[in-house]
Every structure is written in C-alpha cells, then in structure tokens.
Specification:
- This protein has 432 residues and is an alpha+beta fold.
- The chain is built from eleven helices and 19 strands.
- It has helices spanning 14-25, 88-99, 121-139, 161-167, 187-202, 206-218, 228-233, 245-256, 276-291, 356-369, 425-429, and strands spanning 2-4, 7-10, 47-52, 55-60, 63-68, 74-77, 144-152, 158-159, 175-183, 272-275, 296-300, 305-310, 313-318, 322-326, 329-336, 374-381, 394-395, 400-408, 413-414.
- The strands form five sheets. Strands 11, 14, 15, 16, 17, 18 and 19 form a seven-stranded mixed beta sheet that branches.
- The longest helix has 19 residues, at 121-139.
Length: 432
C-alpha cells in the first residue's frame, strides 16, 4: 500500500514496495536537509513506514516529483491542493509553474500543450530534453580538434620517431604519426549521447522513445561519456554554441536526477524529487515581486542571524524565507508553509491546523530581526477551507503581530488582510 502527497492509496508491486521499504530502513539513506528546509525535527526520511488495517504502508511527505525504481517502475508524487475537483493534470501544471520559478532550473514553458502527451512529470521532463537535443541537431553538432596517434600507411601530421622505431622497424611502409582531427567527440556531445541512452532505457512513453531512436541514430559517431562528472566539469560552450545551453541543462537533470537523498545506490533509475516548501516559496517570491508597490522590495533568504550565542559561537540559525523592505528598511517578515489549513477548525484544540513550532519560529524572527516591533506573516496555500486571511491577528505583543494569510495558486496572488498597518492599500484593493 502506498500513501503520499496527492496519492490516495495505491497498491505497488511487491518488488517495488520492498525496495522503498529498504530505503526507509537504511540508516545511510538520509535526507540531505543542509539547505535549512522546514522539515520537522526528527524526520530523517521523506518516506515513513506505517500500517493501515494491518497492511504496511509508505507515506511520502515534503517532496514532489517522480521516483523511479531500479526496475523502471515510476511513482509520481503530486501536491495536494485542497480542491475537490482537482485532477493530476492540474497538480502537474502547478508543479511546473513552481519549477519555473527556481533559478537553477532550465527554462520551462508553463501551460505547454505537449504536457497532455505525457502521463508523468518525469516523461515530460525527458521530453523537454529530447526537444532541446533535437534543436541542437538542427543547428548542427559542434566538432573540435582531437589529437590522434595512429600507425598509418601514409604520412600525416608529425612523425613520432620513438614509436616509429618501436613499431615499424621492419614495416617501413607504415608511419607512426600524431595529428589533429576535427571530430564531434567533445564533452558536450558525449553528455548528450549518454543522456539519450539513459532516456532510451528508462522512458515508457511512445512519443519519447520514437524521437529518442531518431536522435541516437544522429549521434552514432559520438561515444558515450566515460566519466559524467569529468565531462560536466569540462563543458565549454564556445562562441556560437548558445543553442547547446538548454539541452545541456536538461541533460544534467536526466543524468544526475534530483533527489533528497545523500545516498541512493548505483542501480537507481532517473528520479526527480523537489522539496515542496522550496517550490512554494519560489512561487510566492516571484509573484510578490510583481504584486508589491514600487517603494517596497522583497528579499529571499537574507543574511542569517542566530537565536543565541554560546561560548562565542552562534547557535540555532534564523533565516526567514522572505523579508519585506520599504526604502531599504526591514518592516515585515514573511514565511511560507505548504500546509492545508481549515478555518472551520478555529478552536483551542485544532487551532486551524497551525503548528506551534511555526509560531515559536516567527516569534524568534520578530524579536531578533524586527526588534520586537513590526508585522509577521505566515503564508499558506488558498484552499476551499482557507479562502480569506484569518480575521483576528495573533498578537505576540502590542507592537508585534502575526497574520495568517492565503496565497491564491490560480491567480498567483497573496490575499492580504485589510486590517494590517503596512502601506499596501493598492495591493489589498487588487487582491480579492
């Protein structure tokens, strides 16, 4: 049994479930959370083992994307959006819009019509690589001069005396020579060839496989990479090679994947998993830059401070998601949380689904960064059960207030509370 972000519960092949279970139980397979994400303390895996009515389950959390098992079975993990009429296609479109906001991702055309041809995000991403690779071929594969040493029947380039005496003392009709030959055997082309081989072995989409076969034929004279890391390091896009850039960016994703694990094993298929908190933060930041008035600016992941100092060491780093400035003066702290709230549960027990740890975190931000005077915001996705800002403010003190506000995923706007004191009147008027 499988449970996950956007997955109700699906039965997996026994071999795939066993593989996932082994990852959960392997202590060396831990989540790499060095980027200071908001994963709860103690959550060392993004998969948790459990049981429902006597059946073993695996629950996914914090990450979205596609996980591919060694046998090629693809598990797509999509975000829950709280929409009753939500479909997998809508969730995929949301993930793509969020991915397009990341700085280190290749250019993504949101709302692309070709998304309908693919049944998983992974197949779509591989399709983007194939499309970019096809563009490279249309412009022509770049070649470079490669030094060759051969024992030939003709004289070409430079005669190597030592090798000539060693190999051709009797066969005087032959010449051991060194010369430069212009070949397509260069790091960029080798990486593209290796990525094509990877797609050919991992893709299950007929459209992708057909295009991949055509491209592999055009790369017949290019050898596959013997060292992916070395060739990536040796990439050199010379003048006039700008058309290679998109294909190389997608190629790196295909060859290296994106996983939250520090160790996945050598038999892993192509997997692309992204932290949902990072995606949501990137989308909110991009939209806020469009929404804020000219005199205000937003800064993401600003300079970190610490909660306490102990023995001249800074402990417990404080680094808010977003900081709001007016004329270079910090006036508010904004923190994004991918969690579905329910305003109908506004009681002392459920507390709308809010986390006490998040309030402690914002309290620390308010005192350390705002000096106990300003406004704080917790931004959650807008859902059917959370459509407007929580009306009453959360007061840490008379001068430090916290607002809980929704972010409209469809209109891509923060819905601000009308009662706040920040100079966002024009924004508030256009938010509803």
């Amino acid at each position: 049994m499988l449970e996950g972000v956007g997955i109700e519960g699906n039965t997996l092949p026994f071999s795939v479930f066993s593989w996932l279970k082994s990852l959960c139980l392997d202590e060396s397979t831990v989540v790499d959370d060095r980027d200071d994400t908001d994963i709860e303390v103690g959550a060392t895996h993004f998969m948790q083992l459990g049981s429902v009515r006597g059946r073993e389950t695996i629950r996914f959390s914090h990450y979205v994307g596609v996980l591919q098992s060694p046998c090629g079975f693809q598990i797509e993990i999509l975000p829950k959006t709280g929409r009753i009429d939500g479909t997998p296609a809508q969730s995929r479109d949301l993930v793509l819009r969020m991915l397009a906001c990341l700085d280190d991702m290749p250019a993504i055309e949101c709302g692309s019509a070709d998304l309908a041809h693919f049944n998983t995000l992974l197949e779509w991403l591989m399709g983007r690589f194939l499309k970019a690779c096809n563009t490279v071929l249309k412009h022509g594969l770049r070649s470079t001069y490669v030094e060759q040493e051969e024992n030939q029947t003709y004289l070409k380039g430079k005669l190597l005396a030592a090798q000539q005496l060693r190999h051709n003392l009797v066969q005087r009709q032959r010449n051991f020579v060194r010369f430069d030959e212009r070949l397509t055997d260069r790091p960029e082309n080798r990486l593209l060839r290796s990525a094509l081989e990877c797609v050919a072995s991992q893709s299950q989409n007929e459209f992708n496989l057909k295009l991949c076969r055509e491209l592999r034929f055009a790369f017949n004279d290019v050898p596959a990479s013997c060292s992916i890391k070395r060739d990536i390091k040796d990439i050199r896009l010379d003048r006039g090679m700008g058309y290679y850039r998109e294909a190389i960016d997608w190629c790196k994703l295909v060859l290296n994947g994106v996983t939250p694990f520090s160790q996945m094993g050598n038999d892993m298929g192509i997997s692309m998993l992204f932290p949902m908190h990072t995606l949501f933060e990137a989308l909110v930041e991009k939209c806020l830059r469009r929404q804020l008035p000219p005199q205000m600016s937003i800064k993401s992941q600003g300079a970190a401070t610490s909660l306490v100092t102990h023995r001249q060491q800074n402990w417990f780093r404080l680094k808010p998601d977003l900081q709001l400035f007016e004329q270079k003066k910090l006036i508010a702290i904004l923190d994004t949380k991918w969690k579905l709230l329910d305003t109908a549960k506004g009681n002392g027990t459920d507390k709308y689904g809010l986390s006490q740890a998040d309030f402690y975190q914002l309290f620390a931000y308010g005192h350390q960064l705002l000096g106990g005077n300003g406004e704080l915001f917790l931004i959650y996705p807008k859902t059917a059960s959370f459509q407007e800002p929580i009306a009453a403010t959360f007061c840490f003190s008379e001068s430090l207030r916290l607002w809980v506000v929704p972010f409209d995923l469809e209109r891509e706007r923060v819905i601000w509370p009308a009662a706040m004191t920040l100079p966002l009147d024009a924004v508030i008027g256009n938010s509803h």
